[in-house]
Amino acid sequence: MLRFLTAGESHGRGLIGILEGIPSGLPLSAEDIDRELQRRQMGHGRGGRMKIEKDHAEIISGVRWGKTIGSPVSLLIENRDWKNWQEGMSPDARHEGSIAPVTRPRPGHADLAGVLKYGHNDIRNILERSSARETAMKVAVGAIAKTFLSCFGVAVGSYVIRIGSVACGTPGSKLRVPDIFEKAEKSPVRCPDEKASKQMVRQIDRAAQQGDTLGGVFEVVVTGAPAGLGSHIQWDKKLDARLAQALMGIQAIKGVEVGTGFAMAEKSGSEVMDEIFYKKSNKSQVTSNKLKEKYSSDSLLVTPHSSLNEGFSRGANNAGGIEGGMSNGMPVVLRAAMKPIPTLRKPLRSVDIITKKAFEAAYERSDTCAVPAAAVVAEAMSAVVVADAFLEKFGGDSIDETKRNFDSYLEYLKKF
Protein backbone atom coordinates (compact mmCIF):
# COMPACT_ATOMS: atom_id res chain seq x y z
CA MET A 1 0.00 0.00 0.00
CA LEU A 2 2.89 2.33 0.82
CA ARG A 3 6.00 2.60 -1.29
CA PHE A 4 8.83 5.06 -1.36
CA LEU A 5 12.03 5.80 -3.21
CA THR A 6 15.00 7.95 -2.32
CA ALA A 7 17.58 9.48 -4.64
CA GLY A 8 20.65 11.63 -4.23
CA GLU A 9 24.33 11.46 -3.34
CA SER A 10 26.15 12.48 -0.18
CA HIS A 11 27.77 15.54 -1.78
CA GLY A 12 25.23 16.10 -4.54
CA ARG A 13 22.70 18.90 -4.68
CA GLY A 14 20.37 17.14 -2.25
CA LEU A 15 18.26 14.14 -1.36
CA ILE A 16 14.89 13.42 -2.93
CA GLY A 17 12.13 11.20 -1.57
CA ILE A 18 8.78 10.15 -2.99
CA LEU A 19 6.17 8.47 -0.77
CA GLU A 20 3.07 7.05 -2.39
CA GLY A 21 -0.01 5.67 -0.63
CA ILE A 22 -0.64 8.08 2.25
CA PRO A 23 -4.41 8.73 2.41
CA SER A 24 -5.79 12.22 1.95
CA GLY A 25 -6.65 14.42 4.90
CA LEU A 26 -3.57 13.73 7.05
CA PRO A 27 -2.40 16.95 8.74
CA LEU A 28 1.26 17.37 7.81
CA SER A 29 3.82 20.16 7.92
CA ALA A 30 7.54 20.50 7.24
CA GLU A 31 8.00 21.08 10.98
CA ASP A 32 6.67 17.56 11.67
CA ILE A 33 9.42 16.16 9.48
CA ASP A 34 12.18 18.52 10.63
CA ARG A 35 11.74 17.45 14.27
CA GLU A 36 12.68 13.90 13.30
CA LEU A 37 15.55 15.09 11.12
CA GLN A 38 16.96 17.01 14.07
CA ARG A 39 16.83 13.88 16.24
CA ARG A 40 18.85 12.00 13.62
CA GLN A 41 21.63 14.59 13.73
CA MET A 42 22.08 14.37 17.49
CA GLY A 43 24.13 11.97 19.57
CA HIS A 44 27.56 11.96 21.16
CA GLY A 45 30.16 10.72 18.69
CA ARG A 46 28.78 12.30 15.53
CA GLY A 47 31.29 13.76 13.08
CA GLY A 48 31.94 17.03 11.28
CA ARG A 49 29.18 16.62 8.69
CA MET A 50 26.58 17.28 11.40
CA LYS A 51 28.19 20.69 11.98
CA ILE A 52 27.75 21.55 8.30
CA GLU A 53 24.24 20.30 7.68
CA LYS A 54 21.06 21.43 9.42
CA ASP A 55 18.54 19.32 7.62
CA HIS A 56 15.24 20.76 6.48
CA ALA A 57 12.63 18.96 4.41
CA GLU A 58 10.86 20.94 1.74
CA ILE A 59 7.50 19.45 0.76
CA ILE A 60 7.30 19.64 -3.03
CA SER A 61 4.00 17.89 -3.70
CA GLY A 62 1.16 15.86 -2.19
CA VAL A 63 0.26 18.36 0.53
CA ARG A 64 -2.06 21.35 0.16
CA TRP A 65 -2.89 23.82 2.90
CA GLY A 66 -1.44 21.59 5.61
CA LYS A 67 -3.10 18.29 4.64
CA THR A 68 -2.21 15.43 2.33
CA ILE A 69 -4.35 15.23 -0.82
CA GLY A 70 -3.83 11.56 -1.73
CA SER A 71 -1.21 12.05 -4.42
CA PRO A 72 2.47 11.11 -3.91
CA VAL A 73 4.26 13.22 -1.31
CA SER A 74 7.64 14.35 -2.61
CA LEU A 75 10.37 15.83 -0.43
CA LEU A 76 13.67 17.62 -0.95
CA ILE A 77 16.50 17.92 1.56
CA GLU A 78 19.26 20.14 0.24
CA ASN A 79 22.91 19.40 0.99
CA ARG A 80 24.60 22.52 2.30
CA ASP A 81 27.98 21.07 1.38
CA TRP A 82 26.94 21.05 -2.29
CA LYS A 83 28.48 24.49 -2.78
CA ASN A 84 31.92 22.90 -2.36
CA TRP A 85 31.20 20.06 -4.79
CA GLN A 86 29.39 21.66 -7.71
CA GLU A 87 32.04 20.62 -10.24
CA GLY A 88 33.22 17.47 -8.49
CA MET A 89 29.66 16.07 -8.44
CA SER A 90 28.36 17.84 -11.54
CA PRO A 91 26.12 15.93 -13.99
CA ASP A 92 27.75 17.96 -16.81
CA ALA A 93 30.39 16.08 -18.83
CA ARG A 94 32.57 19.17 -19.18
CA HIS A 95 33.42 18.97 -15.47
CA GLU A 96 34.83 15.45 -15.75
CA GLY A 97 38.23 15.19 -14.09
CA SER A 98 37.77 18.34 -12.00
CA ILE A 99 38.69 16.31 -8.92
CA ALA A 100 40.96 13.29 -8.63
CA PRO A 101 39.35 9.84 -8.66
CA VAL A 102 39.17 7.77 -5.49
CA THR A 103 41.00 4.50 -6.15
CA ARG A 104 41.67 3.19 -2.66
CA PRO A 105 38.80 1.09 -1.25
CA ARG A 106 38.13 1.23 2.48
CA PRO A 107 37.60 -2.09 4.29
CA GLY A 108 34.05 -2.50 5.55
CA HIS A 109 32.52 -0.12 2.99
CA ALA A 110 30.68 -0.74 -0.29
CA ASP A 111 33.74 0.61 -2.13
CA LEU A 112 35.35 -2.49 -3.65
CA ALA A 113 32.20 -4.57 -4.17
CA GLY A 114 30.53 -1.56 -5.78
CA VAL A 115 33.23 -0.78 -8.35
CA LEU A 116 33.48 -4.46 -9.24
CA LYS A 117 29.71 -4.66 -9.75
CA TYR A 118 29.23 -1.42 -11.70
CA GLY A 119 32.54 -1.34 -13.58
CA HIS A 120 33.78 1.99 -12.20
CA ASN A 121 37.37 3.16 -11.88
CA ASP A 122 36.39 5.89 -9.43
CA ILE A 123 35.13 4.72 -6.04
CA ARG A 124 33.38 8.06 -5.52
CA ASN A 125 30.65 6.77 -7.84
CA ILE A 126 29.89 4.18 -5.15
CA LEU A 127 30.66 5.87 -1.85
CA GLU A 128 28.47 8.90 -2.59
CA ARG A 129 25.28 6.85 -2.75
CA SER A 130 26.20 4.15 -0.22
CA SER A 131 26.89 6.86 2.37
CA ALA A 132 24.67 7.03 5.43
CA ARG A 133 23.77 10.56 4.33
CA GLU A 134 20.89 8.86 2.51
CA THR A 135 19.31 7.99 5.85
CA ALA A 136 18.20 11.61 6.24
CA MET A 137 15.52 10.97 3.63
CA LYS A 138 14.57 7.68 5.24
CA VAL A 139 13.89 9.63 8.43
CA ALA A 140 11.89 12.26 6.54
CA VAL A 141 9.66 9.64 4.92
CA GLY A 142 9.36 7.80 8.24
CA ALA A 143 8.23 11.02 9.91
CA ILE A 144 5.19 11.03 7.64
CA ALA A 145 4.46 7.40 8.50
CA LYS A 146 4.76 8.18 12.22
CA THR A 147 2.34 11.09 11.82
CA PHE A 148 -0.13 8.77 10.09
CA LEU A 149 0.16 6.08 12.78
CA SER A 150 -0.31 8.62 15.56
CA CYS A 151 -3.87 9.20 14.31
CA PHE A 152 -4.65 5.67 15.50
CA GLY A 153 -2.77 5.68 18.80
CA VAL A 154 0.26 3.85 17.38
CA ALA A 155 3.64 5.21 18.50
CA VAL A 156 7.19 4.26 17.49
CA GLY A 157 10.25 5.00 19.61
CA SER A 158 13.73 3.68 20.33
CA TYR A 159 16.58 3.64 22.81
CA VAL A 160 20.20 2.48 22.85
CA ILE A 161 21.00 -0.54 25.02
CA ARG A 162 24.68 -1.04 24.16
CA ILE A 163 27.63 0.90 22.79
CA GLY A 164 30.85 -1.08 22.51
CA SER A 165 31.29 -3.07 25.70
CA VAL A 166 28.94 -0.92 27.80
CA ALA A 167 25.37 -2.15 28.16
CA CYS A 168 22.48 -0.50 29.97
CA GLY A 169 20.30 -2.24 32.50
CA THR A 170 17.00 -3.58 31.18
CA PRO A 171 14.32 -0.92 31.63
CA GLY A 172 12.16 -1.97 34.57
CA SER A 173 8.83 -3.60 33.79
CA LYS A 174 7.10 -0.90 35.85
CA LEU A 175 8.43 1.85 33.61
CA ARG A 176 5.99 3.09 31.00
CA VAL A 177 7.23 3.09 27.43
CA PRO A 178 6.93 6.88 27.14
CA ASP A 179 9.08 7.22 30.28
CA ILE A 180 11.77 5.07 28.69
CA PHE A 181 11.62 7.11 25.48
CA GLU A 182 11.75 10.37 27.44
CA LYS A 183 14.81 9.25 29.40
CA ALA A 184 16.49 8.22 26.15
CA GLU A 185 15.84 11.60 24.52
CA LYS A 186 17.55 13.36 27.42
CA SER A 187 20.68 11.22 27.07
CA PRO A 188 23.55 12.26 24.74
CA VAL A 189 23.67 8.65 23.54
CA ARG A 190 19.89 8.03 23.73
CA CYS A 191 20.29 5.48 26.54
CA PRO A 192 17.62 5.53 29.30
CA ASP A 193 20.11 4.27 31.91
CA GLU A 194 21.92 7.38 33.25
CA LYS A 195 24.89 5.47 34.66
CA ALA A 196 25.43 3.46 31.49
CA SER A 197 24.93 6.61 29.42
CA LYS A 198 27.87 8.32 31.12
CA GLN A 199 30.04 5.22 30.63
CA MET A 200 29.10 5.11 26.94
CA VAL A 201 30.13 8.74 26.48
CA ARG A 202 33.51 8.04 28.08
CA GLN A 203 34.04 5.00 25.89
CA ILE A 204 33.21 6.98 22.74
CA ASP A 205 35.69 9.67 23.77
CA ARG A 206 38.42 7.06 24.31
CA ALA A 207 37.73 5.54 20.89
CA ALA A 208 37.93 8.97 19.26
CA GLN A 209 41.29 9.65 20.91
CA GLN A 210 42.57 6.32 19.59
CA GLY A 211 41.31 6.98 16.07
CA ASP A 212 38.83 4.13 16.37
CA THR A 213 35.05 3.70 16.12
CA LEU A 214 32.31 1.91 18.05
CA GLY A 215 29.10 0.09 17.20
CA GLY A 216 26.27 -0.97 19.43
CA VAL A 217 22.73 -2.26 19.86
CA PHE A 218 19.41 -0.43 20.04
CA GLU A 219 15.77 -1.35 20.49
CA VAL A 220 12.74 -0.08 18.60
CA VAL A 221 9.33 -0.40 20.23
CA VAL A 222 5.99 0.00 18.46
CA THR A 223 3.10 0.50 20.87
CA GLY A 224 -0.60 0.52 20.11
CA ALA A 225 -0.55 -1.76 17.07
CA PRO A 226 -3.66 -3.97 17.02
CA ALA A 227 -3.52 -7.70 16.46
CA GLY A 228 -3.66 -8.77 12.84
CA LEU A 229 -1.10 -6.65 11.00
CA GLY A 230 0.88 -8.74 8.54
CA SER A 231 0.01 -12.30 7.56
CA HIS A 232 1.13 -15.90 7.90
CA ILE A 233 0.19 -16.91 4.35
CA GLN A 234 3.39 -15.97 2.44
CA TRP A 235 7.00 -15.26 3.41
CA ASP A 236 6.92 -11.70 2.12
CA LYS A 237 3.69 -10.82 3.94
CA LYS A 238 5.02 -11.67 7.41
CA LEU A 239 5.32 -8.51 9.52
CA ASP A 240 8.51 -9.60 11.26
CA ALA A 241 10.15 -10.46 7.93
CA ARG A 242 9.24 -7.06 6.51
CA LEU A 243 10.53 -5.26 9.60
CA ALA A 244 13.77 -7.25 9.58
CA GLN A 245 14.38 -6.33 5.94
CA ALA A 246 13.67 -2.67 6.64
CA LEU A 247 16.17 -2.56 9.51
CA MET A 248 18.80 -4.58 7.65
CA GLY A 249 18.49 -2.06 4.82
CA ILE A 250 19.94 0.65 7.07
CA GLN A 251 23.64 1.31 6.54
CA ALA A 252 25.94 -0.61 8.96
CA ILE A 253 23.19 -2.77 10.49
CA LYS A 254 24.43 -6.38 10.71
CA GLY A 255 21.86 -8.13 12.86
CA VAL A 256 18.16 -7.94 13.74
CA GLU A 257 16.02 -9.87 16.21
CA VAL A 258 12.38 -9.73 17.29
CA GLY A 259 11.47 -9.94 20.97
CA THR A 260 13.99 -11.96 22.93
CA GLY A 261 15.28 -13.33 19.62
CA PHE A 262 18.47 -15.36 19.92
CA ALA A 263 18.08 -15.73 23.68
CA MET A 264 15.11 -18.03 22.97
CA ALA A 265 17.51 -20.59 21.51
CA GLU A 266 19.10 -21.05 24.94
CA LYS A 267 15.83 -21.83 26.74
CA SER A 268 13.05 -24.41 26.67
CA GLY A 269 9.70 -23.75 25.06
CA SER A 270 7.93 -23.61 28.41
CA GLU A 271 10.16 -20.70 29.40
CA VAL A 272 9.65 -18.46 26.40
CA MET A 273 6.13 -18.96 25.06
CA ASP A 274 3.83 -16.05 25.98
CA GLU A 275 0.83 -17.56 27.75
CA ILE A 276 -2.61 -16.28 26.80
CA PHE A 277 -5.24 -14.99 29.22
CA TYR A 278 -8.78 -13.75 28.84
CA LYS A 279 -10.97 -11.55 30.95
CA LYS A 280 -14.35 -10.43 29.65
CA SER A 281 -14.73 -6.68 29.46
CA ASN A 282 -17.94 -4.75 30.03
CA LYS A 283 -16.54 -1.56 28.57
CA SER A 284 -18.41 0.26 25.84
CA GLN A 285 -17.21 0.40 22.27
CA VAL A 286 -13.79 1.92 21.81
CA THR A 287 -13.47 4.04 18.67
CA SER A 288 -10.24 5.34 17.21
CA ASN A 289 -10.90 8.79 18.68
CA LYS A 290 -11.52 7.39 22.16
CA LEU A 291 -8.56 5.10 21.67
CA LYS A 292 -6.24 8.09 21.49
CA GLU A 293 -7.58 9.28 24.83
CA LYS A 294 -7.58 5.94 26.58
CA TYR A 295 -4.43 4.46 25.09
CA SER A 296 -2.45 7.60 24.48
CA SER A 297 1.34 7.48 24.53
CA ASP A 298 1.12 8.31 28.25
CA SER A 299 -0.50 5.02 29.18
CA LEU A 300 1.03 2.37 26.94
CA LEU A 301 2.89 -0.10 29.15
CA VAL A 302 5.46 -2.79 28.49
CA THR A 303 4.22 -5.00 31.30
CA PRO A 304 2.61 -8.43 31.48
CA HIS A 305 -1.06 -8.49 30.46
CA SER A 306 -0.93 -5.18 28.57
CA SER A 307 -2.85 -5.38 25.31
CA LEU A 308 -5.06 -3.25 23.11
CA ASN A 309 -7.28 -6.18 22.24
CA GLU A 310 -10.37 -6.38 24.42
CA GLY A 311 -10.39 -9.51 26.59
CA PHE A 312 -7.17 -11.21 25.50
CA SER A 313 -3.80 -10.52 27.09
CA ARG A 314 -0.35 -12.05 27.49
CA GLY A 315 1.71 -12.98 30.50
CA ALA A 316 4.95 -11.85 28.83
CA ASN A 317 6.23 -10.55 25.51
CA ASN A 318 9.11 -12.79 24.51
CA ALA A 319 7.66 -12.93 20.98
CA GLY A 320 8.12 -9.19 20.64
CA GLY A 321 4.49 -8.63 19.71
CA ILE A 322 4.60 -10.81 16.58
CA GLU A 323 3.51 -14.45 16.20
CA GLY A 324 3.19 -16.29 12.91
CA GLY A 325 4.15 -13.15 11.03
CA MET A 326 1.26 -11.16 12.55
CA SER A 327 1.07 -8.59 15.31
CA ASN A 328 -0.63 -10.05 18.39
CA GLY A 329 -1.62 -6.83 20.20
CA MET A 330 1.43 -6.61 22.43
CA PRO A 331 4.14 -3.99 21.83
CA VAL A 332 6.32 -4.85 18.84
CA VAL A 333 9.91 -5.02 20.09
CA LEU A 334 12.83 -5.07 17.66
CA ARG A 335 16.55 -5.10 18.36
CA ALA A 336 19.32 -4.31 15.89
CA ALA A 337 23.11 -4.47 16.01
CA MET A 338 25.19 -1.80 14.28
CA LYS A 339 28.79 -2.53 13.38
CA PRO A 340 31.53 0.01 14.17
CA ILE A 341 31.78 2.61 11.42
CA PRO A 342 34.46 1.30 9.03
CA THR A 343 35.99 4.71 8.29
CA LEU A 344 38.87 4.97 10.76
CA ARG A 345 41.55 7.50 11.58
CA LYS A 346 43.54 4.42 12.51
CA PRO A 347 44.14 3.22 8.92
CA LEU A 348 43.47 -0.34 7.80
CA ARG A 349 45.26 -2.17 5.02
CA SER A 350 43.83 -2.31 1.51
CA VAL A 351 44.85 -2.41 -2.17
CA ASP A 352 44.59 0.32 -4.84
CA ILE A 353 42.15 -0.77 -7.56
CA ILE A 354 44.32 0.73 -10.33
CA THR A 355 47.93 0.08 -9.29
CA LYS A 356 47.10 -3.02 -7.21
CA LYS A 357 49.64 -1.82 -4.67
CA ALA A 358 49.04 -2.19 -0.95
CA PHE A 359 48.31 0.93 1.09
CA GLU A 360 46.70 2.06 4.32
CA ALA A 361 43.08 3.10 3.69
CA ALA A 362 42.36 6.81 3.38
CA TYR A 363 40.24 8.62 5.95
CA GLU A 364 36.99 10.23 4.86
CA ARG A 365 35.20 12.51 7.33
CA SER A 366 33.11 10.29 9.56
CA ASP A 367 31.59 9.66 13.00
CA THR A 368 33.13 7.87 15.94
CA CYS A 369 29.77 6.39 16.89
CA ALA A 370 26.39 6.75 15.18
CA VAL A 371 24.33 4.19 17.11
CA PRO A 372 21.97 6.83 18.60
CA ALA A 373 21.29 8.20 15.11
CA ALA A 374 20.84 4.72 13.64
CA ALA A 375 18.11 4.06 16.22
CA VAL A 376 16.20 7.10 14.95
CA VAL A 377 16.56 5.83 11.38
CA ALA A 378 15.27 2.44 12.51
CA GLU A 379 12.22 4.11 14.06
CA ALA A 380 11.48 5.68 10.70
CA MET A 381 11.82 2.46 8.74
CA SER A 382 9.75 0.54 11.29
CA ALA A 383 7.05 3.20 11.05
CA VAL A 384 6.94 2.87 7.26
CA VAL A 385 6.53 -0.92 7.46
CA VAL A 386 3.86 -0.77 10.18
CA ALA A 387 1.98 1.99 8.34
CA ASP A 388 2.10 -0.12 5.19
CA ALA A 389 0.71 -3.14 7.05
CA PHE A 390 -1.89 -0.90 8.69
CA LEU A 391 -3.15 0.37 5.32
CA GLU A 392 -2.99 -3.16 3.92
CA LYS A 393 -5.33 -4.23 6.72
CA PHE A 394 -7.69 -1.23 6.92
CA GLY A 395 -7.37 0.48 3.53
CA GLY A 396 -8.91 3.85 2.88
CA ASP A 397 -8.24 6.61 0.38
CA SER A 398 -8.83 9.21 3.11
CA ILE A 399 -7.97 9.30 6.79
CA ASP A 400 -11.67 9.34 7.68
CA GLU A 401 -12.29 6.17 5.67
CA THR A 402 -9.33 4.43 7.31
CA LYS A 403 -10.64 5.45 10.74
CA ARG A 404 -14.10 4.04 10.00
CA ASN A 405 -12.57 0.73 8.99
CA PHE A 406 -10.29 0.72 12.02
CA ASP A 407 -13.18 1.51 14.40
CA SER A 408 -15.17 -1.37 12.95
CA TYR A 409 -12.24 -3.73 13.54
CA LEU A 410 -11.89 -2.59 17.14
CA GLU A 411 -15.55 -3.33 17.70
CA TYR A 412 -15.05 -6.76 16.16
CA LEU A 413 -12.11 -7.45 18.51
CA LYS A 414 -14.22 -6.33 21.49
CA LYS A 415 -16.94 -8.85 20.66
CA PHE A 416 -14.68 -11.74 19.61
SSE map:
Blueprint: E1 3-7, E2 14-20, H1 30-41, H2 49-52, E3 57-61, E4 63-64, E5 67-68, E6 73-78, H3 111-118, H4 124-130, H5 135-150, E7 155-163, E8 166-167, H6 177-186, H7 194-209, E9 216-223, H8 239-248, E10 253-258, H9 269-272, E11 276-278, H10 288-294, E12 312-314, E13 322-323, E14 326-327, E15 332-338, E16 349-351, E17 358-360, H11 371-394, H12 399-415
Antiparallel strand pairs: 1-2, 2-6, 3-6, 4-5, 7-8, 7-9, 9-15, 10-15, 11-12, 13-14, 16-17
Beta content comes to: 15-25%
Main sheet record: 5 strands, antiparallel
**CATH topology (level 3) name:** Chorismate synthase, AroC fold
- Tell me what the CATH architecture is: 4-Layer Sandwich
Mean pLDDT: 89
Number of domains: 1
CATH class: Alpha Beta
Number of helical stretches of at least 4 residues: 12
SS-derived structural category: alpha+beta
What report would you give on this structure?
This protein is of the alpha+beta class and 416 residues long. It has one domain: Chorismate synthase AroC (Chorismate synthase, AroC fold, 4-Layer Sandwich). Helix content is 32%, strand content 18%. It contains 12 helices and 17 strands. The chain has helices spanning 30-41, 49-52, 111-118, 124-130, 135-150, 177-186, 194-209, 239-248, 269-272, 288-294, 371-394, 399-415; strands at 3-7, 14-20, 57-61, 63-64, 67-68, 73-78, 155-163, 166-167, 216-223, 253-258, 276-278, 312-314, 322-323, 326-327, 332-338, 349-351, 358-360. The strands form 6 sheets. A 5-stranded antiparallel β-sheet has the order 8-7-9-15-10. Strands 1-2-6-3 form a 4-stranded antiparallel β-sheet. Strand 13 and strand 14 (326-327) form a beta hairpin. The two termini are 27 Å apart. Residues 283-308 have low confidence and may be disordered.
